[in-house]
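Final report, section 2: Outcomes. Of the targets proposed, ABC transporter permease is the one most frequently requested by collaborating groups, and we therefore present its record in full.
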Amino acid sequence: MATLDDVAAPQRRTKRKLTGYWLILPGALWLLVFFVIPFYSLVASSLFDPDGSVLTGYDMTWHFGNYWDAFNQYKGQLGRSLLYAGIATAVCLVVGYVLAYAIAFKAGRWKNLMLVLVIAPFFTSFLLRTLSWKLILADDGWVVGVAQAIHLTDALNIVGLTTTDDRLLATPFAVIAGLTYNFLPFMVLPLYASLEKVDFRLIEAAGDLYASPMRGFFKVTFPLSLPGVVAGTLLTFIPAAGDYVNAQLLGSTNTKMIGNSIQSLFTTQLDYATAGALSVILMVIIVAAVMAYVRTAGTEELV
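The predicted structure is given below as C-alpha cells.
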C-alpha cells in the first residue's frame, strides 16, 4: 500500500524541475528581447537590397553579396580594429598582470584600497575619461615634451604608431593608449580573482625545491592563473575590437576603426544593408577568434 511519502515524492521532483525553469525564465526573456530579436533584425538588414534607400524603402532580397562588398570596401578598417584591439589587449595583459600580482600578494592591508582604485575610473563617464586623454596627449602638454626629450616619439614613429615625430594625439598610439586605459580594469579584476586563489604555499614549495623566482613563476603561478588570463583577454579584446569612441576622439581619419564605419553607415549615410553586413562580419570574426582561442587555451580544463 502506497504511503503519503510515496505519493508526494513525484510531486516534489516535478516542483524542483519547474523551479529550475522558472529561474531560467527571466534570463531567457532578457536574451530574447535584447539579443535574439535585435540579432534577427541585424541579420535581416544585412540582406537588404543594396539599391534601397530610406526614401524608397528596403526590401529583403537575401542579397548575400552585401557581405563580400562590405568586406572589400572596409577591410582596412576591419584589420586596423583587430590590430589595435590585439595590441591593447597585450599591453593590458602585461600591465594588468603586474598590478593584479601586486594586489594579490604584496598589497597587504592596502589590498582593498588598491582594488577600489582599479575600479575608480568606472565612477566617471566613459566619454569623460576618453576626453581627458585629449588634454594629456595635447601637443603642448608635458607628456609630449617628455616623450620628445627621451626620443619616444621618434621610436613610435619608426614602428608606425605615430605619423610625425612631434605629436601623440590623432595617431594610432593615442587610440591604442585610450583603449588600454579604458579596458584595463576588465583585465585586472579576473586576473586578481585567479591569483588570489593561488595557494602561496605552492610558490614557497617551488622555492624550497631550488626553483628560481622566475622559474617558479612560469611553472607554478602563471599556469594556476590561466583562467584569469583567458577571461581577462576575452573581456578586453571583444569590446576593444568594436569600440569607436577612442578612435573618434583620440584618432584621425587615418585611424578609423570598424566601429566608426558602422556608426557612420547607420546614422549618417543611412546605408543599412552595408552597416548590417559589416556588423555581422565583425561578429563572425570575433566569435571564430574566441572559439579558436578558447580551444587553444583549453578552457574546459582550466575552469
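Residues 64-297 form a domain with the MetI-like fold fold (CATH 1.10.3720.10).
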